[in-house]
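Record type: monomer structure entry
Structure origin: computed from sequence
Chain ID: A
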Amino acid sequence: MTATQFTFDPNRCTGCQACVLACWMENREHQSRPWRTVHTFNACGHPDLPVFHLSFACHHCDAPACLEHCPADAYTKDAATGAVTIHADRCMGCRYCTWACPHDAPKFNEALGTIEKCTLCPERLAQGLEPACVARCPMEALGVSALDPGRPLVGVPGLPSSATAPAITIAPLHRPEPPRQGHRPPGQAMRPYLEALLRVAHPKITLRGEWTLLLFTTVISGLAAWLGASLLGGPPVHRWTFLLLGALVMALSTAHLGRPGRAWRALLHLRTSWLSREVAAVSLFLGLGVLATFVQPALGIPAALAGFAALFAIDRLYRVALRTGPWNLHSAHVLFNGLFLLGLLAGIWPLALLLGLIKALLYLHRKQNFAELGRPVRPAVSVLRLGLGFLGPLWLSATHPLLAAALAILGDLIDRTEYYDELDVATPRGDLLVRLGAATAAPLSTADGAM
């Protein structure tokens, strides 16, 4: 059996959803949410742009992001068919694969607390049959074929730029000339509708959904800085406080899991998963930290190093959802926060001043970019963040280091709350909305070339 890919012809697809229904009929015993989705470009019917549909499920990529980033090692890729499979009995329900996949394929099953997705119908393939969605497409828009190594992967609508190499070939869209009409709606009449459509968002990551991770990352950065500062002449670590905060960190880190009892599996994919590496570094930090404060102070140095390694890993794992300049750096990165707190608590003024300046410049750059893009700047929040997070701590650091650190943590909490609402996971729907926005903001000739 050779590796298989989907084929899709948007010129044939009518958006009838027969493929979605066929997938459910075949997999309804394992499916809590649709595994296949039909996306529509130009749903508002702009007269100068085509209307077409894309039927997408898991593309069973050559280099699947879900498999690479899953900390529990719950994904496998079949060498014969190329099918990427999620094993629910291994999944701990962290949902990180739903962030990492740019094709919106993994779906979280709320009832079971695990991930599910398209399987490529392996039982049907073994019998020489097509997957159910392909077999029941009335327009023959969906198909399967042997994997084409030369398939186009760049510039295809609905496929955000990524290194996953999705196993799908999409036929070029036959672009008709704009319809000739006696009366055409003026651009200013459609603009409010288009703007409303482009503002509609269904983010996968929100502050409301990830508040436990907000607290987890804030507490772990404070603990790492405190332990490090105590080794450099700063305030000593109180052993019971460290133990209680460490227990809080462990509780927060598992609170968002669908299957907390499988949290131990997060250590199984250190080779490629930054989430696995984060879990390992946090566990090492807390373990060594407790031993250093209760038993052997000499373990304080490796504990502090493990703590800052954990902060680095946390920032790395969020890169799948962070798109900000310059160089994809953010003022709320926990490594920056930890180093800033270290400088304040240990009285290392050059370090505190340097990190404070870097964080402030990154914050102001982001707000300026928001203003240029027409996104909310939140001036009152920005002033509060700058005052609490930078000016206040630097002013008080020489005389009241603990108060300075407390103010810095409050400022970082404000920044971190904005951070979670700014995270942006790539999806086919998001890619189509970006293309629609670009096409409707440009002259017709430019819009045609953009598609």
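Annotation 1: The CA atoms of residues 367 and 379 lie 9 Å apart.
Annotation 2: The first strand starts at residue 4 and ends at 8.
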